[in-house]
Write a structure and sequence with these properties.
Layout lengths: L4 H29 L1 H8 L5 H17 L1 H14 L2 H21 L3 H37 L4 H26 L9 H20 L6 H4 L11 H24 L1 H8 L4 H25 L5 H21 L5 H18 L3 H7 L3 H19 L3 H12 L4 H23 L1
Helix pairs in contact: 1-6, 1-7, 1-8, 2-3, 3-6, 3-17, 4-5, 4-6, 4-16, 5-6, 5-8, 6-7, 6-16, 7-12, 10-14, 10-16, 10-18, 12-14, 13-14, 13-18
């Protein structure tokens, strides 16, 4: 039994990292599902298109500050320890999510309420900006021989966080709790979850690499080229995640009048497949090339995306199958690009640049996507716009992988 203690301890660490990441993602993503309700509260436009664009512009604010959060969290992680950064982001998230849940709407608080809501959303972005990159770095450094599996566990819990977001959304939307709006209940639940995350993080051990006080080797390793290559690797994942896990409910209901219950079932099934893919990919990708796996999976997902959008009004079964393939692909991908990006940087600069790369990719290729897509679909009257943008991001990912191989 004594020989199993280190293994059990490491598994507990992976679970703590994963649970924390999942709950933080819930806090950040719940906004997108209650977008219409939040628009009515803080942006009461009568025109549906303007309301949608305003809401997702509002959504963009949370992503706009994520690179700053990643940079600050990275500085803390590189200088004072990864655990310190984790505890800091948890505290900020509790305050921000609770504030968003209790803030009065524009009808009562006027423009001041809207500004405060944006401020709290930015605080959420700061917290989440440091959370996931730090979790990735800790996982890679704690599990030098099973990096993919460790990161796969974290992203498996991220998929559970997304699932929890949808379960909360669909569950709360059909109940009434006095005069409290359903979206406020969801935010207050998120604040309670975040308090639990704080106490979980106190049990996390510091990275063994950081404890050894790694030497700060000064060498010319084209750091900013590596930063942009890393952004290019993450970009297609960011766009697939946004289109199929955040923007899709709004897209299906607004442009195709999809039945809410059908969407609900499809997402539950897809996220279950994604959870399985994260664990399976983590176990498999440690034993063969993560670079080839990344490139092949992007190709399969792009093909599935084409058939998904092409059959939206023709074959619902094909739509559900393609959605499941894309969710499985996102799960399998989670243990490839993440490990590659973390290993791309030296230990003493790792947290800072991983945080910048991950969050800049989501700011540039995720945050503006819903707003841009709505505008382009209305302008060109072409519902295949999302597929075209996805194809462009996949090309970018493949090009970045070529540069990655040259630099390593």
């Amino acid at each position: 039994m004594r020989c199993l203690k280190p293994y059990i301890s490491n598994m507990q660490l992976a679970l703590y990292l994963g649970v924390g990441a999942g709950i933080e993602y819930y806090d950040f993503a719940i906004f997108s599902l209650f977008a219409k309700e939040i628009t009515l509260t803080f942006f009461p436009y009568k025109n549906e298109m303007y309301a949608s664009i305003a809401t997702y512009f509002f959504f963009f604010f949370g992503y706009l500050v994520r690179p700053l959060g990643g940079y600050i969290g990275g500085l803390i992680g590189d200088r004072y320890g990864r655990k310190v950064g984790f505890l800091s982001s948890a505290g900020v998230l509790v305050v921000a999510t609770f504030g968003m849940g209790v803030l009065p709407g524009a009808a009562v608080g006027g423009m001041g309420a809207t500004v405060l809501f944006i401020f709290f959303r930015c605080m959420q972005g700061l917290a989440v900006g440091g959370e996931i990159p730090l979790a990735m770095v800790l996982a890679v450094e704690h599990f030098p021989t099973r990096k993919g599996l460790a990161v796969g566990v974290i992203f498996a819990f991220l998929s559970l966080g997304i699932l929890m977001t949808y379960v909360t959304y669909y569950g709360i939307s059909f109940i009434s709790i006095g005069q409290i709006a359903p979206w406020r209940v969801a935010f207050l639940l998120g604040a309670l979850f975040s308090i639990a995350v704080y106490f979980l993080r106190k049990k996390i051990h510091e990275s063994p690499l950081f404890q050894k006080k790694y030497p700060k080797i000064q060498k010319k390793n084209k750091i900013y080229v590596r930063l942009w290559v890393s952004i290019g690797l993450i970009a297609p994942v960011a766009m697939f995640t946004t289109y199929f896990l955040l923007f899709m409910p709004h897209y299906l209901s607004t442009f195709f009048a999809f039945d809410a219950s059908l969407t609900h079932i499809m997402f539950i099934q897809g996220l279950g497949v994604m959870f399985f893919g994260c664990v399976l990919g983590g176990g498999v990708n440690d034993f063969w090339s993560k670079k080839w796996s990344y490139s092949l999976l992007l190709g399969v997902m792009l093909l599935a995306a084409y058939f998904f959008y092409h059959h939206l009004t023709i074959n619902i079964l094909m739509v559900r199958v393609c959605f499941g393939v894309i969710c499985l692909g996102l799960g399998l991908l989670s243990s490839t690009y993440t490990v590659l990006v973390v290993n791309f940087f030296l230990p003493w600069q790792r947290c800072k640049f991983v945080g910048l790369a991950y969050n800049l990719a989501y700011t540039l290729f995720s945050a503006p996507v819903p707003m841009l897509s709505i505008a382009l679909i209305h302008f060109f009257n072409e519902p295949m716009v999302p597929f075209i943008l996805l194809a462009m991001s996949v090309m970018m990912g493949w090009g970045s992988m070529i540069w990655y191989k040259r630099l390593t």
